[in-house]
Amino acid sequence: MNTNFIIMGLPASGKTTFLAALWHLVEANEAECRLRFVGGSGDYTYLNMITEAWRTFNPVPRTSQVGDKDVTIQLMDAETQVCGQAFFPDLAGETFDRQVEDRVCKPEFIDALSQNRGILFFINADVKEDALSINEFNSRIPAIVSDADPFVEAESSTELREWSPQDLPEQVKIVQLLSDLIRPPFELLQRRIAVMISAWDLVRDMQLTPSDWLALHMPLVSQFLKANSVYFESRVYGVSAQGVRLEDDAAINDIAKRVPSQRIQIVGQVREGHDITEPLVWLMSVKS
Amino acid sequence: MIDKMNDADGDALTGDDEDVDVFDLSDGERIPETTSRWSELPASSTLSVQAADDFLCWRDATVVAIIGERNGGKTTLVTELYSCFLRGTFAEVFFCHSLSLMGFEQKCFQSRARSGGSRPETPRTSAQDGLSFFHLAVAETSDLSRRDLLISERAGEVYREVRNHPERAAEMIELSKASSVVFIIDGERVACPRKRTEAFASVRHLIRAMLLSCNLSAQAQIQLVTTKYDLLEGDEQADAREALMEFERAIVTLVDGRYDVCRFDTAARNPLPGAAPARGLDALLRSWLRPLTPLSFGDMTLPELTNEFDRLMLSRESL
Which of B2, B21, B87 sits opposite A219 (nearest CB)? Predict the structure, then answer.
């Protein structure tokens, strides 16, 4: 059983909220889940800090001064009774931005990936139209405005910007991060990757499966994963770890009366539930 | 370098402005350089000739040479082709890989709404940049078989020089390596009666220079690609279209059967509301992916073979 993981994702992609919800779920033992916390000594300061915020419907505190964190949780598979130490070396989202924009990464990250760890890759469902073309944009301007020469109006009201690597659309950044894993200095391996579409509650009404959502909103990422199945064995999940909008007092009051683990939602290919350890179980089942 | 999404995204799960991923640093809060070492990763810009050569040592790829004078739409053709994959599968292939993602993006930016521009533009390629290549790997949707393309990128001014000094075509290594040689016919100039003849002359001179150089692979296909074809539509452009067809027939005569010649009409970036982007690029891409017949040794210029071991290579073909 491979119990070491890599968590990847651009800034604000839901990595920490997932960890907070995961820690509550495996530790509270209040809802059905495949992996359970089996106790043991360790430093749980960080996990308790972020999970306290999660449990009390507060914004997860920023840890910009803390830097990267390694999270270790002793887990047992409820079906097989096999125990293992789940290890999540967490890198700041900013680190992945730098990997794309500055073309640098941390040596520890390269080392960790050489051990064929399962990858949890987080993508925020709240996507922006950051690759919208000018023609597409102009076609959305109402005809009456178009007749008034939108080019001239736009030119007078907007400032032309020079390109910088920060301007890469999010799906291109993600593909760059994944592409880096299939060329040196990273070791060429077939990896398992669980793509976690976070904030799934925002897009649930679209009635799409997580895979279909990815194909529709991040088509480059979806194509890349399909075309590179020799390098990436992938599954796509929709995850709602927070379960409620923190500015919606009425909704919080309502949901606070329920078991906290029921706030958590995960949608896989065929089923949905509260057990966000499901992707971990799949990642762990790979032979290391 | 922090993504500006920070201020708008808030919590990844609720959309709350205040609940921000704790691993994310705000603007200006980058982890100090002293806290960690960083390893360099390979660049993601267009490939230099050396990088393309290194790539070909590692993996087979089809080289596509895009030839034409400035403002004809060479770079736009390629970047719009890449942009199609940002919207989904295209021409029955998946996007598979690119070593030049940043290179594509840099050239695309001025066509994006984020640039703040009101008309799509493509930055000019400088003659000082020399020859470089976009890399695009695609996989068939049917069986996921992968094909790699190296698409040349060179300033139009250089090709203008080749018109003036045809012998310089021999120095164009993209020609010798290419299995598809795309000659850009600027549809905008064809649409204008006063510029049409010169537009045709430009292409004819370049093809003549290429034929003179004998610098083309025997299996290469000459592709006459008319860009901005949307400007050639309508009754008022019937003369232009007729002239274009006449010109294409003249090129077939000029090539005289030495190479396969085919034609494509494209409108990579039609600004009319409702117009589909990348018109004609699917057929063009499919042509670049056509299976190539392996070259016979008789078609290659081989160095002098000095030992029996080398000559064994030739005997393989007679088996």
Answer: B87
Q: How many CB atoms lie within 10 A of CB B305?
A: 12
From the candidate CATH numbers 2.60.40.650, 1.10.3720.10, 3.30.230.10, 3.40.50.300, the one assigned to the domain spanning B49-290:
3.40.50.300
Sheet-wide strand order for A191-198: A35-37, A69-77, A83-90, A5-9, A118-124, A191-198, A232-240, A265-267, A272-273
What is the CATH classification number for the domain harbouring A260?
3.40.50.300
Nearest Cα residue in chain A from B18: A59
Closest CB from A15, A146, A199 relative to B14: A199
pTM score of the predicted model: 0.88
**Is there a contact between A227 and B138 if contact means CB atoms under 8 Å apart?**
yes
Whether residue A12 and residue B144 make contact (CB cut-off 8 A), yes or no, is: no
Among all residues of chain B, which has the CA nearest to that of A107? B39
Strand A232-240 and strand A191-198: pairing? Answer: parallel
Please report, as a single letter, which amino acid is at residue A99: Q
ipTM of this predicted structure: 0.90
Chain B residues with CB under 8 Å of A133 CB are 83, 111-113, 120, 277
- Structural domain contains residue A15: yes
Q: Do A131 and B31 touch (CB under 8 A)?
A: no
Interchain pair B38, A106: CB under 8 A: yes
Q: Is the distance from CB of B151 to CB of B134 less than 8 angstroms?
A: yes
CA distance A179 to chain B (A): 7
Q: Is residue A136 part of a domain?
A: no
Q: For every one of its 288 residues, what pLDDT tens digit does chain A have, with 9 covering 90 and above?
A: 667 888 999 998 999 899 999 999 999 988 889 999 988 778 888 899 999 999 999 887 655 445 677 788 888 999 988 887 788 876 788 889 999 999 999 898 898 888 878 999 999 999 989 999 999 898 888 765 555 554 555 555 567 889 999 999 999 999 999 999 999 999 999 999 999 999 999 998 999 999 999 999 999 999 999 999 999 999 999 999 988 888 889 999 998 998 999 999 999 977 889 999 999 999 988 664
Alpha-carbon distance of B82 to B78, in angstroms, equals 6
